[in-house]
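Escalation from tier 1.

The customer reports that the assembly of two entities below gives different structure tokens on two consecutive runs. Tier 1 could not reproduce it. I'm attaching the input and our single run for tier 2 to review.
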Amino acid sequence: MSTKIEKIVEFKIHRYDPQNGKSYISTYKVPIRKGTTLLDAFKYIKDKLDETLTFRHSCRMGICGSCGVNVNGEPMLACYTQVLDLGVDSLEIAPLSNMPVIKDLVVDIEPFFDTFKKIKTFLIKPESELTKLVAFAQSPLDLKKYWDLTLCTKCSICYSACPAAIDERFLGPSTLTANYRFILDSRDEGLEERLKPTADNIWLCTSCNSCTLFCPKLVDCSNAIVDERGLVVESGIIPRTVKDVLESVFKYHNPMGTHQSKRMEWAKELNVKTFPEVTRADILYFVCCSTAFDIRNQEIAKAMAEIFNRMDVNYATLGMEEWCCGDHILRMGEKGLFEELATHNIEMFKKIDVKKIVTLSPHCYNTFKNDKPYSDESLNVQHYTQFLAEAIQAGKVKPSKTLKRRIAYHDPCFLGKRNEIYEEPRQILQAINGVELVEMKRTKHSSFCCGGGAGRVWTEEAQPEKRPCVERAKEALELGVDIIAVACPFCVTTLEDAIKVLDVENKIAVKEILEVFREAF
Amino acid sequence: MEKYAHDIVIVGAGIAGLRATIAAAEINDKLDIAVISKLHPLRSHSVCAQGGTAAVMGEKDSYDLHAFDTIKGADYLADQDAVEFFVKRAAREIILTEHWGLPWSRTEEGKLIQRPFGGHSVPRACFAADMTGFHEMHTLFGKATSYRNVNFYDEWFVTSLIVEDNTATGLTAIELKTGDIHAFKAKAIVMATGGHERMYEFTTFSHTTTGDGMAMAYRAGAPLEDLEFVQFHPTGLVPQGVLITEGARGEGGYLLNAKGERFMKRYAPERMELAPRDVISRAEQTEILEGRGLEGPYGPYIALDLRHLGEEKINERLPLIRDVAIKLGGVDPVKEPIPIRPAAHYSMGGIKANVKTETPIAGLYAAGECSCISVHGANRLGTNSTAECLVFGAVAGEEAAKQVSSKSFKEFPIEKLALEEKRIYDQILGREGDERVPVLRDKMRRVMNDKVWIFRTGDQLQSALKEIRELKQRFAHIKVEDKSSTFNTGLTSALQLDFMLDLAEVTIVSALARTESRGAHSRRDHPKRDDENWLKHTLAYYTKDGPRLEYIPVKITKWPPAARTY
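Tier 1 run:
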């Protein structure tokens, strides 16, 4: 290319030599011009600096799916990414994850492609229909229903980013989406047959959204899987654990199997105002089923109330009228139950006069903000980390004690990659004197899911070493930190479970940010 | 060395290769079929095909009309019996792929839409938005992987074709994962390895389309037909050459020069932007050479203006190229014209094959772009290639399947395997020369771009031939830095360059000899079409001193050559 060099970018590339089994990093400096893609940079390195650098590539126009790589922890297509768009001067390039490395940036894609052998990848039609040499009719509207799902190039980026795929039973986002693509195809007549291969693994998905987030062709795998689950639920062939959760929500309006009359038990010793005794407040404190009923997580609910009390905040909860927000339920495929929950909660929001809603759980936050019918209400809702960070900034609250702790913050998927709230949790921790905040290797929108979303916190049945929480806990252990701090009650549950399974309770603890903050108050 | 034996071995897993696989498997489920590809099948260049697949399906259309459009488009060099066969089988392929699940775009009534395309008198291009090749590939792959008697050898690099007594008996291939070379025995081999346009610098082609099959067949004694005819697609995105589909013009896009003029009215007043590709490429090149190209940071270009189509239509019919133009060209076609230039795009020439896809070597079939039957003659119409790959891919599979039932394996000549090992491991990988593959490769591509482009002269071609021959000599002194056995892309780059240098030589020698202008082959020093002397096909045979040329007549059935104007 003939234009001027904009800057020099340093490429630190993970290499692997299968001849001697050695992994090492090679560093190169590459001149970058306007329009230089990552692939252009790799070819520059290979042609001019180091011919041994090995990577896959072919079409260089984002359609063949060859060139997926991890760039500073995020998977993307090398040919379709402009280096200047990345906005940094140093790039760490690694091969895709979840697949064994063959050499340098080339991974073995067979495990990924093998998953497609478990589904049928062409139309299911009676033989008599197929022999007629007349095209099946399909309206443009029917075509539109599944068209977006046909754009998958099988690049395996979603599979690489997927926390559930560490269990080889999981068909993976691409395969489950390809399966659903045929179910949605109006010409297809194979619904029952197509649901069968999903039965033993579709519940491993946590709706972390990494697949949808990183897909270079913008295929919404995450929601395709949710919709596919809806069909599985409808068919009635669901695991016992899923059934129990859904039955609990149906009976008790919460997934915890406990009558709503016990919902405010956690607040026994505290002075917490509730609806309908109170009909006005500045803040509606939306507690969450997990922190209301789970004995361990009740500490979190209490911590928030204590901090509110110390700050003299005028707040109230919905009391027994707080039904499950429905986020997990929606993502488990039970749209009907979700609508019931949402309709009730929205009615309650209308009956209580408040300035804003503050949620403990990112799941409640997420669904209030993004899912209909909640999103139609344009609710003024904050996650508690936003509220607390704001208060710290405004000087309304100040942690006075010094806490000498080495803490790694784990970005919860429903707060971080799904809603882009990254800074506030860190600001709270950094406001505490003595805290040394350490970043996890996979951080911010490359955070690795705790494995609790979309109901998996209740339906988990993978072998321990195949559970995302165990993998994530191991990652934290490598950093030598005292605490994994999280901002989601479900992360607390799964990561604590992982700590127990790994038998490292004496080495590391899992704490909600509120609990750390309360200690320093 | 282990030997692998399969009834049918298909080399290449693009549209033609996968279609042949399905066809062979459908005929006989007891057949042992192997598909060898140096890439995973879904990475094949076929996924880049955008515009559509031509077929006679409507009442306003007829086989004769499609045939005539194709033959006229071919500047009367196409074999008319082959064309007549071809046009009758295209519709069947559309319907079969539809039955397997292809998401063809539809009319309001739910039928397949057909869009206008260059050189076609009637809209007959069936399409799936602007990703037709992509969807054909994924549909075919979805079907081809359902047969139990098909073995896929993904990322195995075929290095040579073994021919004994003018019969194809097998081939040699490197398993890239281990670096080991293996011998394959086969009763029938189908070559479906695609084109070779990567020998040019500015091309719409993937990095991996290096004409391997054409070169291997040539070295094994099969003639390469009409290799001088290289199609230059009018709209390659500047600066990488990425394809912007002709469908953009089919939907109504304009080509503008620096004056904002729709200059095609001076070259093809009737068809304008939908004239055949060679006509438009020459027009664009002329505009640029005469100083009416727009100036940009990557040199002169022509503007493809789609703004008047509106955002809705662009998103519905041309979503891929919109994304590509934004991500790789830095322009949004909804708001600005796309900078384009003619790019090397298709090889009308290839391994000589008949209507049954049989080559002059017994047991060797060729289908798709790597073959020359000849359906496209001196210039191919858009949407006829994907159609050709489907039609003749099916024919190749059917023919191979029918013929192998009566055949037996021939013994694999061990000495040829030994020779091949020596060539690859000693001569190419083992040599400690001072030449580098990327340097020679870039030089070759520059020579082809400068001297064997749209407008050619005898002097330039002579000069190019000299330079290519020099490069071939220099190739004997290369050093491949990567000595590992696993996934050695340094070695595959060298092997691919070796193939391309042979094909470059054949292209130039054939072009030098043809002293006329026809279709995509334009000689400034011989600007007229010369039916009296040149209504014939070039056949290039391998000799160690360079290609030896022969000629065979064109088959004319219904349409005597006439003036070609649009």
